[in-house]
Write a structure and sequence with these properties.
The protein contains 5 helices and 38 strands. With 736 residues, it is mainly beta.
Length: 736
């Protein structure tokens, strides 16, 4: 591993050339009128600028080679422009932005080829998190669940774990700041550990993504894009305050950004606090309260050949765990039992530009400190997880219409126990993967293919007397896998695009599955690991058809996912200390289903947007029994009106949302059925321009009819606890 660290550090001292490459120009609309405040960004760097009142812009310190410029402003279609730049180039551009017809085609960072969705072989969904928060989502997982095919396993409002097409936990990989997030995510009662503030957007890859991301990306990837720096030579200051009626919750955020010629800087401080949530009948669910503190820091350095981006995120989460017969006391401070989690994320991304190629390296360190507290003086579980990530990619010179990327990435991880109890052992994990992927364009088609080899080594320390409760056997295991993908995108007509993708993925068993020997308090069961578990290996076929007209969009996604050696847990009929004993087993499984939807944007009333989508997933083991934690079928509908009130009151919106969840009768052996329900939400928001400052206000009401319901993936439903009742959210944002 030392050679990889040396390579990454060496790049940090390599800044070749300080030539001033400059791009300038004007931006106008189709009526030849200048457009101000257009955001101009460089896809391969952290450079941003904005057009002035005359539509003029200028960007310096541009990297050499082939670049993609992105021009973006609300109510206009995003425009991307490719250019080639050498040393000391002076380039002038005249840009024309078209009025937004029906949608904005965002740039996808997670695709590695950094293309728009229309230019990408794999269908990747892009979510603007700030826009979703305006619709009343309390936590990050709830915001993700607005996307078709994504749901959430929840424990109240404080814990949410995303489910992508029926797969969750270690089968869905999370990337933050360009590195994989590792925080003991094997348990369904563990949260993502991320604060939504400071996250610009998220990209969702549904299906195997092991080619680019390795183990644990078998079910999909959540790729979070951090908030951007300020435009060059600009200073920005914002204050964000959100309050919730149901939980008397508050969410406060303060952000400062400054950008000069070569240096960028941002700092953000967030504080979130919620009391117990209330049911539709007015009763509180005791100890669903939580307090979260979050701090983010970023700095970047840019020259014509070198870009560096250093980011740090500290997250402190103190959350209560609801239990029977708890005395309802205090207000916001979590009672016992509770979880106390500290998470540190440090990432360093570097790009080195050559004339016709590019080298990119990212190093990351994640430190997760997790405690489960039974009382003030008793720490039941106390685990420290340290993870070092690295990812190196080389973008080869283009060979005609063929683009190729090769690279390697890996992880070194150590878990240590310090509590009274142990659920998983002290262990070390090391893995490395080598990959290559190419994209070839011909006529109206785009072909993408690649292959990857992974190797993982797991070393588990012995603890206690073998055979006794809470003991762990020494174990040295190796796992390896070869995976590949092949995809084809075809423009059938000017308006119809089809995609077909074949991909394999894998997941090595986690420490809990290999070696558990104790009571999993969050699941109320005694779990015994299985050291003979093999890799989960899957093969998935994805089909996608998009129809995009000027005022009407339609999409249909279908998938078939076959998983060899699917790992699941089942009771063996015995009990230890009044807890049923569960064993980890393996069998082949299959999941299939899809999503379909429309987006209507009529010409006569172009301020009104209507979207509707339907999603379903079916999963079974080879024994014909249903897989657990499968989301119920859903029909989601949203009506949104966008308009400008006056010159100073812009980007106003009103929305109404109706989401119908069907009953879930396809359940696992240890689940209960859930009934159908309809949830209504509504809200509005406005932007008020005050000279050079902007004041944003939104008011949203979720579960408008105060419906009493239980979500199928709620972990509280086994205790007969309903989900949250009506909630009114008021948000105020000042941008100075």
């Amino acid at each position: 591993m030392k050679i990889y660290i040396f390579l990454i550090i060496l790049m940090g001292f390599t800044s070749l050339g300080f030539a001033q490459n400059v791009i300038s120009g004007t931006i106008k609309n189709q009526n030849n009128e200048p457009i101000s405040n257009v955001e101009i960004s460089i896809l391969d760097g952290v450079i941003q600028s904005k057009s002035n009142e005359k539509g003029e812009f200028q960007i310096t310190n541009l990297p050499i080679g082939k670049l993609t410029l992105i021009f973006k402003k609300a109510k206009f279609e995003i425009k991307s422009q490719q250019i080639s730049i050498g040393n000391q180039d002076q380039i002038k551009l005249d840009i024309v932005l078209e009025k937004e017809a029906h949608h904005i085609d965002e740039i996808l960072i997670s695709s590695v080829f950094n293309t728009t969705q229309n230019e990408n072989v794999v269908k990747i969904d892009h979510i603007n998190l700030k826009q979703i928060q305006n619709m009343g989502a309390i936590n990050l997982s709830d915001a993700l669940a607005t996307n078709p095919g994504v749901n959430v396993v929840s424990t109240g409002i404080s814990i949410g774990k995303p489910v992508i097409r029926g797969l969750s936990g270690n089968r869905v990989l999370t990337y933050v700041q360009g590195i994989r997030l590792e925080n003991q995510q094997f348990g369904e009662e563990h949260d993502l550990g991320l604060n939504a503030n400071g996250q610009e957007s998220v990209e969702i890859i549904k299906g195997p993504a092991s080619l680019l991301y390795g183990s644990d990306a078998m079910g999909g990837v959540l790729y979070f894009n951090p908030e951007k720096y300020a435009a060059t030579n600009k200073t920005e200051f914002s204050v964000n305050q959100v309050v919730n009626s149901n939980t008397q919750g508050v969410n406060s955020s303060v952000t400062f950004k400054n950008s000069v010629d070569k240096f960028k800087f941002l700092v953000q401080n967030n504080y979130t606090s919620h009391a117990d949530y209330k049911l539709p009948n007015g009763e509180s669910v005791v100890n669903t309260r939580f307090i979260e503190k979050d701090f983010k820091l970023g700095t970047s350095y840019v020259t014509s050949r070198y870009v560096a981006d250093l980011r740090y995120n500290y997250n402190d989460l103190n959350l209560g765990l609801p239990e029977e017969n708890l005395e309802n006391r205090k207000f916001r401070t979590p009672l016992f039992p509770s979880q106390k989690i500290e998470n540190h994320l440090l990432s360093f991304n570097q790009k080195l530009f050559f004339k016709n190629s590019k080298l990119e390296a990212t190093a990351g360190y994640v430190f997760n400190d997790r405690k489960e507290l039974e009382s003030e003086n008793l720490t039941a579980l106390y685990m420290k997880l340290k993870t070092f990530n690295y990812n190196v990619k080389y973008y080869l010179p283009d060979f005609g219409s063929l683009i190729t990327i090769v690279g390697f990435q890996g992880m070194n991880q150590e878990n240590r126990n310090f509590g009274e109890e142990r659920l998983i052992p002290n262990a070390k994990i090391a893995d490395i993967g080598f990959f290559g992927t190419s994209q070839y364009a011909f006529q109206k088609n785009l072909l993408q293919f690649g292959v990857r080899y992974d190797f993982r080594k797991v070393n588990i320390e012995q603890f206690g007397e073998i055979g006794a409760e809470g003991a762990f056997q020494k174990l040295d295991k190796n796992f390896k896998s070869i995976n590949a993908s092949l995809g084809l995108k075809t423009d059938v007509t000017y308006k119809i695009t089809s995609r077909i993708n074949f991909a394999s993925g894998f997941r090595a068993p986690n420490l809990s599955e290999l070696s558990s020997n104790g009571v999993h308090e969050g699941s109320n069961r005694y779990e015994i690991g299985n050291s003979n578990l093999k890799n989960e290996q899957n093969f998935q076929i994805d089909l996608n058809v998009d129809y995009n007209a000027e005022h009407f969009d339609f999409f249909a996604n279908g998938f078939y996912n076959h998983i060899n050696n699917y790992i699941f847990i089942a009771p063996n009929g015995t009990m230890i200390d009044d807890n049923f004993v569960y064993d980890y087993l393996q069998n082949d499984a299959v999941l299939y289903g899809g999503e379909t939807g429309i987006h209507l944007h009529l010409h006569e009333i172009d301020w009104l947007h209507m979207t509707s989508s339907y999603e379903m997933v079916i999963g079974q083991l080879n024994t014909n029994s249903n897989l657990p934690l499968l989301p119920a079928n859903q029909w989601k509908n949203n009506f949104r009106a966008n308009f400008d009130v006056s010159k100073n009151i812009k980007n106003s919106f009103v929305f109404f949302q109706a989401n119908y969840t069907f009953n879930q009768n396809r359940i696992g052996n240890f689940e209960t059925k859930t009934n159908d329900y309809l949830l209504l939400s509504t809200g509005f928001g406005i932007d008020i321009q005050l000279k050079k400052s902007t004041f944003n206000l939104f008011l949203t009401a979720t579960n408008l009819l105060n419906k009493q319901y239980v979500a199928h993936l709620s972990r509280l439903k086994s205790d007969g606890i309903y989900n949250m009742g009506r909630n009114i959210v008021l948000g105020v944002i000042f941008n100075l």
